[in-house]
Amino acid sequence: MITRPAFYAIAPHTGGLERLDIDDVSDAWSNLRNLVQHDLAALDGSVLAAVPAARVRPGSNRGGGAHLFVYRVYEPAAGSSVDPVVAGILVRPAAGAASADHFNVSGDIAGESIGDVLFELQSREVIGWTAMTEAARDISTVLVRQASAIAAALEDASRQE
Amino acid sequence: MINRPRIVFRGGSRTNQALTPRRGSDTAAPAGLTPGLSVEDTLKDALDSGNKKAQKLDLSKLRWPLAYFPDNPEAEGARRGHGVITPVDDKGRVDLVALEEWASCRLSQADTPHPLTQLIIDTIVESDVRRT
Question: pTM for the whole thing?
Answer without folding.
Answer: 0.89
